[in-house]
Amino acid sequence: MAQLPTIAFASSPAPQSGSVIVLAGDGGALSAEGRAADGSGALRRASGVAEFSGKFGAVLELIAPVENGPDRLIAIGTGKADALNDHAWLKLGGVAGSQLRKGAKISIVASVEGVDVSAEDAAQLAAGILLRAYSFDKYKTRKDEGEKADGAKSGEAASVTIHVSDAAAAERAFAAVRAVAEGVHLARDLVNEPANHLGPLELSGHAEALREFGVEVEVLTEEEMHELGMGALLGVSRGSTQPGRLAVMQWKGGGDEKPVAFVGKGVVFDTGGNSMKPAAGMEDMKGDMGGAAAVLGLMRALAGRKAKANVVGVIGCVENMVSGDAQRPGDIVSSMSGQTIEVLNTDAEGRLVLADALWYTNDRFQPQLMIDLATLTGAILVALGQLHAGLFSNDDELAQRLTAAGLATDERVWRMPMGPDYDKLIDSKNADMKNIGGRYGGSITAAQFLKRFVKDTPWAHLDIAGTAMGSPSNEINQSWGSGFGVRLLDRFVADNYETAKNTA
């Protein structure tokens, strides 16, 4: 992977050399610290000429503005002060990250006129830099060569120093948000990996690697899943030469509290099986494990910041292929719940994997709630595009908490309808249910299918087909795999289920 910048915090004024970034408030105003960094006033004079007004995310760059001053002087607009929330600081960090050159040393003056910039704000700024710096170049044999204009070699990581009023407090705050950023990076890596390098065994292996951070991990083999009666999940895995796995992760940071549980669809590649997909665009199906990637990234984030919560993560790891042993349209399989499923379309396989994973999670752990994530349906893209994930739930309070976390992190969700009339569409004449409900409302009938495997446990389903892969680039993500869901669910846990917060 590309080298990420090193980030440090300092309380001293920014140096008058190298590359310096200052933050310009509404109208282009600089704080006292920003004016000191501007020194001769070259940036303020250029602001007038360029009509730079400090609009959020706008950039004004000066190269060698004076003879004895910074090599580069950059102003980034922060917009209106009352709009500077956590996510705004994260995005500002992303904009700052877009100005980094490999190997360069850069100073950022984290000060805004009329704003009390907190340690937490500075930490979010730093996290935004890390998120923006991510790129997936693991398999490129030719890297950029030579030297950049500032004399730094292109293979070196950039070095960033953020100047704040309380550097020690910012450093402490950054430790937690850095762990979340690292969880996002893990999820992006997994979604970006090609399927010939990330099969079911490799995906479950990434769960096992979390033991390093204190996560308890078990991996169930196909034999063990067969003994448990997981015919729905194993039916999907039948067509592949690679065996399926169920990875079970536990983070125990919340004392005696019942856990909250997250379940991810981990289809490492989806041909559609015998109901085969068209060739055009099938290469994107390496990302059909985006739900599992989000759960892995979340567990990495929670463990990394030592979350005071009990959390279970379960991922079903399979490959949906075509072979002489692959399941056929019309096959009937028996799930762990005992309910039978008529498989009318082998390309509606993710819900079969989740059916057994959800039932297992609920039956074993009796969690407070369950949330599953899956790149489940193309229908959700038609309904919501790529800016919202579809939210389906049997519990209004849970849905509201997820919505609030989505607004706070800008990983937005939109609640979709459910109900008995939709549920009837998946009734089968030959089994307890069928795995598709017809052309209309495809994302809804998929959710209705999953609901049959959660009993009365508060549950939410996030259809992330439009947001986990190929989503639009933004200030903090330039990658095909976005890592969607990690920040959303980390915030959801932090705001609602950490014991230290709930007893304060």
From TrEMBL:
Coiled coil: none
Binding locations of Mn(2+) 2: K265, D270, D288, E349
Highest taxon of the lineage: Bacteria
Predominant place of localization: cytoplasm
Signal peptide: none
InterPro entries, A to Z: Leucine_aapep/pepB, Macro_dom-like, Peptidase_M17_C, Peptidase_M17_leu_NH2_pept, Peptidase_M17_N
Active site (UniProt): K277, R351
Function description: Presumably involved in the processing and regular turnover of intracellular proteins. Catalyzes the removal of unsubstituted N-terminal amino acids from various peptides.
Protein name: Probable cytosol aminopeptidase
Native organism: Mesorhizobium liriopis
Gene name tied to this protein: pepA
